[in-house]
Amino acid sequence: MAMPKKGSRLITVDGTVLRWRVSHKPTYSQDKKWSPLTFAVERAEKPGSVLVVSLPCARPDNWGGQRTIVIRPVLVVGCIRRALEQGWNSGQPGPGFALTVTEDELIALLGEQPQYLIPFLWGMIPEGGGIKDLPRCTQIWSQDKR
């Protein structure tokens, strides 16, 4: 089944134009408990198998205050290349291909430490920060610096 075009972004990886998106609304279970932040990728023209990437952090709209990240194009490209190495064929029709990214792989894919955010009533605050940090929201501490 093809993914909706509305809300998706185009990205070119090794000459192939692909479309990626994060679901606009969480599923019921994603909303009520912790579940990973996921995004889907497929070919822009003649879609085949869909790649579903699960990241080691929660959705930004989670109610539990779990840490999250912003999905940037560098991460999407890294995940697509990793999936291609593991056998995903974007042009081949068939079932979806699942790629689960671990914390260590996330660092390797980004080329740096992830910049985590923590959802908080009015927005996002830096991980490890407090209410006084809410207006600036620029520097974020990782789990290992506590």
Describe the structure.
- The protein is an alpha+beta fold and 146 residues long.
- The protein folds into two domains: 9-113, no CATH class; 115-146, no CATH class.
- It is 18% helix and 27% strand.
- The strands form two sheets. A five-stranded mixed sheet has the order 1-2-3-4-5, covered by helices on one side. A two-stranded antiparallel ribbon has the order 6-7.
- It is globular, with a radius of gyration of 16 Å.
Topology diagram in text:
Elements: E1 9-13, E2 16-21, H1 28-32, E3 36-43, E4 51-58, H2 73-85, E5 97-100, H3 103-110, E6 117-120, E7 123-126
Parallel strand pairs: 4-5
Antiparallel strand pairs: 1-2, 2-3, 3-4, 6-7
| Uncertain residue segments | 135-142
3D shape: globular
Number of domains: 2
**Which range does the strand content fall in?**
25-35%
Helical fraction: 10-25%
Count of discrete alpha- or pi-helical segments spanning 4 or more residues: 3
User: Average pLDDT value?
Assistant: 80
| SSE run | EEHEEHEHEE
| Total E-strand runs | 7
Structural class: alpha+beta
| Main sheet specs | 5 strands, mixed
List keywords for this structure.
146 residues, alpha+beta, 2 domains, five-stranded mixed sheet, two-stranded antiparallel sheet, 3 helices
Summarize the structure.
Helices cover 18% and strands 27% of the residues.
